[in-house]
Amino acid sequence: MPVGFTVPLTIDNALELRRCIKAVAFRHGVTVPNTLRELLGRGFPNIEGEAP
Fold first, then answer.
1. Which domain of life is it from (predicted)?
2. Global pTM value
């Protein structure tokens, strides 16, 4: 997923979900923001011709 620039995104989530996300990111050797970008990119792909 190419990234031209980033903007902040704030979400509220449960402490246990935060721990899970951090653990998965650590196991894969990536950062939490990169993990979330990947997950969001899969759920909301940018399809040509559609508005983001």
1. Bacteria
2. 0.69
